[in-house]
């Protein structure tokens, strides 16, 4: 044991322990993110995928109560490719502006598994707008501008509505995950969104969702990488 030498365990047991029954904190859920690892697991046999899904979501396993699905941005044949294959997630919106709902088989496999096991909280999160929307036609390395907000919000509504209508109980959407980092080196998907534009995106997206099948989806906002050193200094008092 790393934190307690075996010779000390009998002494600690003799001393006795008291567990305070007073609640200190309530956890809404306990979960995991399907950020990148589904890209690896999709190459394993189906039985392995089923076993992992059972381990994550069933009562006999971890019994996770929340799951985050990574909404990809790679539109296929992008002008600038994400250099790390495992960090490239296929977008449902292609470069030509049409939708292909058969894409991202890896991520969707475990998203559906979470739904099948009845995971109570499912969140969609976004690290970048798809290349069709991006000003540099890539899934990385750009700053979102105000003129892109309406089309981005419409895109998110379309994705959420599709999956809700196809049996996925989406509870939340995180539209800008780590908006402080545009991932200029394109090592992974990412875009930056200036703090002055973030409220506009939240309002625009809320309006889009309210008039759609995704009207009950809540917005998680915003998931800046570091709260104390980035988020708080950026926001006005």
UniProtKB/TrEMBL annotation:
Entry keyword Nucleus: no
Keyword Metal-binding: no
Keywords: Signal
Domain of life: Eukaryota
InterPro entries: 6GAL-like, 6GAL/EXGAL, GH
Signal peptide: 1-24
Residue span(s) of domain Endo-beta-1,6-galactanase-like: 23-226
Any one GO MF annotation of this record: hydrolase activity, hydrolyzing O-glycosyl compounds
PANTHER family: ENDO-BETA-1,6-GALACTANASE (PTHR42767), ENDO-BETA-1,6-GALACTANASE-LIKE DOMAIN-CONTAINING PROTEIN (PTHR42767:SF1)
Protein name, entry field: Endo-beta-1,6-galactanase-like domain-containing protein
Organism for this UniProt entry: Cladosporium halotolerans
Lineage: Eukaryota, Fungi, Dikarya, Ascomycota, Pezizomycotina
